[in-house]
Specification:
Blueprint lengths: L7 E6 L3 H11 L8 E5 L2 E5 L10 E10 L2 E10 L1 H30 L6 H41 L9
Antiparallel strand pairs: 1-5, 2-3, 3-4, 4-5
Helix pairs in contact: 1-3, 2-3
Length: 166
């Protein structure tokens, strides 16, 4: 298992950023490809069609940048906003609760009581691990969509792409 939350890639494109944007615009005209995209300034957001999406379906943020005279296509996969918000909220609540447990345990220790506040910290740690595993499970459910979007980008730019997972 990797610790990276958002798989990514970085490839070099032989043309200008404008040409790279045009290539993707033309590729998105292919209805039977089954990928939807929204264009922003030198950026695309690619997804599978709404009727095929599920809770764990990802999107690809494809950023087209010029760096040292070369055009780079930098892709980063991410979850839907509701999934991302759920995980951030869960980690925040668990982190704050674990911290409070440590403070209580420290106070108990200083007045020579059993540091039962450590139980709260331990439970929060276990729950954070469970949340992480749930995220990895969701990522595995999203892998078919990740590979589908990745194949679409590979065929559009005619270049093999290896995603970084660690």
């Amino acid at each position: 298992m990797s610790l990276r939350l958002r798989p990514r890639f970085d490839i070099e494109f032989g043309g200008t950023p404008d040409e790279a944007m045009e290539v993707m615009r033309e590729a998105l005209n292919c209805v039977e490809c089954g990928i939807l995209g929204h264009r922003y300034t030198y950026q695309y957001e690619l997804r599978v069609p709404r009727e095929e999406r599920h809770f764990w379906s990802p999107f690809l943020n494809l950023l087209i940048q010029e760096d040292n005279g070369k055009t780079h296509l930098r892709g980063k996969f991410g979850p839907n906003a509701n999934v991302w918000t759920m995980f951030v909220a869960a980690y925040t609540v668990l982190g704050i609760t674990a911290f409070v447990g440590l403070i209580v345990a420290s106070s108990q220790w200083s007045i020579q009581q059993a540091p039962t506040g450590l139980i709260v910290t331990a439970v929060c740690t276990v729950l954070a691990i469970i949340v992480y595993i749930a995220g990895k499970f969701g990522e595995s459910l999203a892998m078919n969509h990740i590979h589908r979007i990745l194949r679409f980008v590979e065929s559009a730019y005619d270049v093999p792409i290896a995603i970084e997972m660690n």
